[in-house]
Every structure is written in structure tokens, then in C-alpha cells.
Amino acid sequence: MEVLEAYKPFEIQEVKLSGWKQRPVKNNFFELVLIKSGSGIQCINYNESTYKNGSVFLLPPLKCHSFKIKDETQFVFLKFTDSFFKGVDKIHIDRNEWFKEASYILSNYNQLPGDILKSETDRLHIVNLFEMILLETRNYGQESVNLITSLMTSILEILIRNIKKSNYFEMEAKVSEEKITKMLTYINENIAKTNLLKVENLAVVFMMSPTYVSEYFKKQVHMPLREYIIKAKLKLVEIRLLNSDFTLTQIADELGFTDVSHLSKTFKRYVGISIKEFKSNGNYMMLTRSTCTN
User: Fold this and answer.
1) Distance (Å, rounded) from C-alpha 51 to C-alpha 40?
2) Which terminus has fewer CB within 10 Å in the chain: N or C?
3) Are residues 183 and 128 in the same domain?
4) pTM of the complete model
């Protein structure tokens, strides 16, 4: 396996396998997989989906993912590392905005197997961006960090575009109504803007009566609106606690909690452990949709 790194904003690996072996790398943030050649089956939590040349997958922060290889497969793994978001001063980008984009992808991805790209044009873009990153890393090393960072930003933009076009949001049952998908997208895009998430504003945006908004939401999502918003925020809290240098005060202010005490009490109520215990464990809880049984 060839492992290529460039100042730790990412790790990229290219490898050809005829049989799958569990990889020891801990996936704290998230990782993309490009299938350059070969065929087989991707498995996440015992759910399966076929793969082929050009397939692009997003590996969730779970240990239970694997590939059943049918034809010898050439994989490219691109890992967005948490160290990139922790004060790497030599890379001059808007780190907060980058982090928000990456967090949006991770918090809204449904953690089921399957190709994450729905647009063939976007697939071509992603394949070309992967190839450019590989070439730049091999040929220029440290000199290519800023360019590679820009390429990775482009990858994030493409992923967000595809997530917004698809029904990736976690719901107990699939729904056919386009309105609820748009409402979920709107809520998650504006999760830090408390005023925009008020029932009165949602009623205006989606042309519904204020008295019907909460009823409609619960009927479609099988969860009260207020609870969904709190859990959506806590997923972002988890990401920030494990993958950034943000203080609790900064996290509380950004996500609309009254203060650190309010954040801590809400976290303990819904997650079941304190923030200190969560950071010590180092594993997602709200963000993990399901768990493995063996």
C-alpha cells in the first residue's frame, strides 16, 4: 500500500487488493473512497451495496465497514484528518468555513452503503480531482499543500451539492414529499441561526400555517421539531469536540446555546454522558446512527 501525506491536512492511500483486510487507521473525521478499477460489494453495518469503476463512497465514523472484493480492486482512500482543523497556521484558508462545510457533510450523511454521487458530471470532477491530488503529492510533496487544499475544498463543495440533492437525512421511514426534504435541508443549513429555525419563520418559508408546521414535521420525520433541531446541533457539537480547537464557549455561542452550562446540561440529557466523559472516550455517540452487534 502506498501512503502519501502532505502536511497532514489529509492522508491519501492508493492500493490494489484481491481480498479485504480491516484497515487499522482510526477514522475520526471522515474518509472518501474512489474505486479506480474492480468490482464487489460495500458493507456498512450489514447493509450492502455493489461497487464498480468510478464509484465514490463516504466511510462513516464506524468500525463496521468493509468491502467484499469480487474482481481485484484498485482503491484510493482520501482521509480528511482532524489535524487540519486544529491550528495548522501554514495553510492560509478560512478554516472555520472549511470546517463548517466538512461538518455539514458528516452530520447529514445517512451512513448507509452506496455511491454518494448522483451526478455523472460531478463523478468526472471527483475522479479528476483525486488524480490531481495523487500527482501533486507524488511530484511536489510539501510544495503542493496549498494547491491540494484548494482541490480538497472543491471536493467538499461537490459532496455538499450531492447531499443536498438526495434524501440523505436520517428518518425512521422514507418519505416521498419533496417539501420535508427541503425543510430538513433548510434546517441543517441554518442550524446555527436560531431565529430562522423558529416555527413562525419556517411557516413563512414553506408557506404553511404556524400551527401546522410542528404537526407536519413530526408526522413526516417521526420526531418533534424541537428535538430534531437539538439533536442536529449536538451532532455538530460532537464533531467540534473531537475535531477542532473550539472552546465550549465558542461552541455554545456558535450553535445558539444560552451559555456553557446550557450546552453541558443539554449534552448530558441527550447523549447520556458529560462532555468531559465524551472527550475522554473519543467516540461519536449522537453522530453514530447505528451500532454493530459483533
Assistant:
1) 5
2) C
3) no
4) 0.68
* Whether 97 contacts 85, CB under 8 Å: no
> What's the pLDDT tens digit per position in 223-279?
999 999 999 999 889 888 887 778 999 999 989 999 999 999 999 999 999 999 998
Helix (H, G, I), strand (E, B) or coil at 221: helix
What's the first-to-final CA gap in the chain, in angstroms?
28
**pLDDT (tens digit, 9 = 90+) per residue, 265-275?**
999 999 999 99
Q: What is the pLDDT of residues 122-156, one digit of tens each?
A: 999 999 999 998 888 888 766 777 788 788 888 88
Same domain for 57 and 141, yes or no, is yes
Number of domains in the chain: 2
140 and 276 inside one domain: no
Closest CA relative to residue 133, chosen from 73, 75, 76, 56: 76
For residue 182, give its domain range.
Answer: 178-281
Residues 77, 222 share a domain: no
Torsion of CA 51, 165, 102, 284, to 10 degrees: -70
Block residue for cell numbers 473512497: 33
Q: Is residue 33 part of a domain?
A: yes
Q: Which ranges of 19-94 does DSSP label H, i.e. alpha helix?
A: none
Per-residue confidence band for 61, with pLDDT thresholds at 50, 70 and 90: low
